[in-house]
Each structure stands twice: as structure tokens, then as C-alpha cells.
Amino acid sequence: METGTLREEKASKSGTPITTVKNFIGGKWVASASGRTVPNINPAKTTEILCNTPLSTREEAKAAISAAKEAFAKWRATPAPVRGKLMFNAMLLLQERIEDVAVALTKEEGKILRESRGEIQRSINIMEYAAGEGRRLKGSTIPSELQNTFIYTIRQPVGVCALITPWNFPVAVPVWKLAPALVAGNTVVFKPSTYTPLTAVKIVEILEAAGFPPGVINLVHGGGKTVGDELVNNPDVSAISFTGSNLVGNAIYAQAAKRGIRVQCEMGGKNPIVVLEDADLAIAAEGVIQGGFGSTGQRCTAASRVIVEASVAKKFTEVLQTRMRAIRIGDGMDEQTDIGPSVEENQMNTVLKYIDIGRSEGATLVAGGGRMQDDRHKQGYFVEPTLFGNVNMKMRIAQEEIFGPVVSIIEAKDFDEAVELANNVKYGLSASLYSQDMAKIMKFAELAEVGKVHINTPTIGGEAQAPFGGIKSTAIGPKECGSEAFEFYTELKVVYLDYTGKKRETNIY
Ligand code: UN1
After folding, report:
1. Cut 0.90: pTM above it
2. How far away, in angstroms, is 119 Cα from ligand 1 center?
3. How confident is the model at residue 17 (pLDDT cuts 50, 70, 90)?
């Protein structure tokens, strides 16, 4: 039976039908013809299958690209303020559906409801900001060296944009790509992670209901080797924005370079929280709880290294350890829960593997260290919040992204060494400093090799109107969010206009 965006496929063990989500191509919800699916499992309760995700075919990706290409000319000609207004409609609709989207997010990704609501509020803010930018897509006027010559710039859309997004922020990251892309006049093909199809469908339903014309937004579920590969290599795609692992992002960059198209990648992080001896240790510990263990550590901005001045390292470890005992781990649907599960089994196993690596490298296990197997937790992919002490920067747990609730404490003899240790990784997304010393704060903001610095707040988060992104191995291409997001999604054109009405006497340049 075909209904709305879902197709009922087969009954689950409990007799409830499991639906397979559909693609959205050229303004129509269509079932994939591939016949291949993967189950979307609730990571807090692995007996619950929420739906199936279709593994769409290359042909379906091609159809979505064609639909986007066909819709481009008309969409490009739609005035930017009108495009912005549609995004504003979408914002209002998302606002009405916060709870519905938050529940889907918590069930399929695992983060707690409070975090899901926060992520959706951030997405609403981004939509609001991008909608307003439709009225501000300004160029500039530039003085000419020649009389009666007018120079000005205009911003124009790039064309068909492929948006490839991860499971860990399955609402905010797609929205922070979709909103500027669409308001700037591009058409898009959106490929979400196969772990989070329900939230992707809800976002696209909202954009459809807001009035975006057919073909402007297309959604194709599926794997990287088929759908992703087609999006990266199809000659009709003009730009690719990707958030995910370095392995995949760097491969996309290399592939896309063959066609010389623009690429924006937001990838890994190994973000430090630096705690100086003058810091309020309780506030700093709270920062580690939020930054290191919030969202189960599954965010590129997660704080996985805590660099503490040696004079307070022992005390700080005790404060943190005590605070960690109060963390409640469980199903994110329970309002009492602080931390949810890993998103899926392989991810949990990666986290457990890194905990083993930490042990074998000689780090001291201070807290946690294993999967939770008691009655309340054995049905989910729950890993205990884990703290390692005596970590040094040669260890893999200090250098590699773990993407789980694992934090390492590294001692520094003084501020200068702390900065050196903070910068001693290949990544460069985010860094925090806890201190009241203004000179050190200013110095840290200047010297930290990252795209964003937080003083006396954790490494995570960001506001809609501020640019977001990293440096070093974390990122490729321009920043996301804020007005800067429009740099990636627009071409800047310069126009020279001669109104002398005469043949130009000299062509000086
Ligand atoms: C945040 O902490 O601000 O993939 C969200 C990620 C990021 C989003 C982080 N792109 O984790």
C-alpha cells in the first residue's frame, strides 16, 4: 500500500508494518526501484525498527540531478526576496512541527530529546537568517579609473548543488546547507545518511509544503558508492557540500577536482578544552560534561582532549570524576536521560576499540571504559562515559577522532605548553579556554589553530548568524552558516558599464 511519503513493505516481528521511505524527485514522492533497503534501527532499543531506508540506484540519482537541472532556470529567475519568503514559510512550518521532528530525531539518532529540540531550534534560526538574506543578496559598486564607467558586482547561483550530510546532526546540518543554497537560487539534490532517513523526509516535506517548486529540492536516499558517487561525478552537478569523515571528504575533493567544481567539506575534529589554574574548576568540569559527553560525543565539535595546567590537574580530575557520576545514560525519549546511545553497532564498536587502544597505550582509565549491559541498557548501544588520565600527545586516543563519550586528560606545565599541546593535532575545528586572565584569553584566541574559539564555554555549538567551520585538516572551502554561507552558494560577477556613448579612445588595461 502506498501512502504519502512512505511505502508499507513487510510486517515486523511485532506485526507492525515496516515502511520504506521514499525519494522526492521532480516534486513527487517515489519509491526506489532498487528493491534493496537497510533497516533504520532505534539505537536505544535495537528491537525497534523505525522504517527501512532504500538503497537507491544510480539511475535514481541521475533522475534527481536532471530534475534539479530542469528546475534551475526558472528558480534562478525567481527574485531572491521571494525565494527567501518561501524559506520563511518553511521556518514557520518547522516551528509547528518541533516535537514531531524531535521525536523522530531522538529515535533514529539516539540523542536526547532536549538536544533534539535544541538542534531543531538552531535549524529554525538558520532558516530565519537565510530567509532574511534573500532581501540582502547585495553586490557592491566600485569606482572606475575611467569617466562615465560604472563597475558593480552581482551574486548569482551556482547551479545544481549536491548536499551530502551525516547522521549526527540530521536536521541542522542539512538545513544549514539547504537554506542558503535555495535562497541563493540554486537547485539541490540532498543525500542524507542512511541512518537518519525519517528526519530527512520531514525536512523535505516541510520545504515542499512551504511552496518550493517541483525539482528545486530533490531527496535521494542511498549509499555513497552509488548515489554519492553519481552526485560527485555527474557533469550536471556544479557544487558539492559535504559534512562527514575525512576519508570520504578528501576522496570527494579529489574526484570533484577532476571536473574543477567547487567543494565544501566539513570533517573531523579533535577539539581541546584548556583549563588553566585560575579557572573555576566546577564551571570548567561542566564544560567538559557538555562538550565531551553531550550528544554522546558524536559531534565534530566534541571536546575529546582536556588540557589542564599541572598544578590543578589532580583536583580537576576529581571534580570531573565526581560530576561524571551524576550522568544518567539511557533512552533519549526519557526526559531524565543526559546521554543517549551510540548511533549504531559499528560506531559503538569503534568507540570500544578506542577505549582498548587507550588502555594498551598506557593511559589510566579513570572512569567508565565499557559497554553497558545491565537490564536497562542491554537493548541499546550504550557506552559508559569514559575518562582517561595520564594521556600524552603521542597516543592515538589523543590524536584520532573517536566520535563517542571518551575524554582524555593531558597535563601541561604552563599556558605556553598548553597552547602547544592544543595545536598538536592535524584537525582544527574548535578550542575552548577556561580562565579569567585577559592576556591569556587574548593570546589563546590568537594562537589556537582552529576555526572557532570558545572562552569559558565548551567547544560545541554555534549561532545561526555566525560563520561555522574549521581550518587545517578539518575543512575544505568556505565557511557555513552566517552570511559567509552565501560565498559557497553564489558566483560573484563583475560588470563594467560604459555610458559615454562614444567609442572608447584608449584601452588602458
Ligand atoms: C555543533 O556542535 O555546533 O558534524 C554542531 C558535526 C558538525 C555539527 C556540529 N558539523 O558534528
Report:
1. yes
2. 10
3. confident
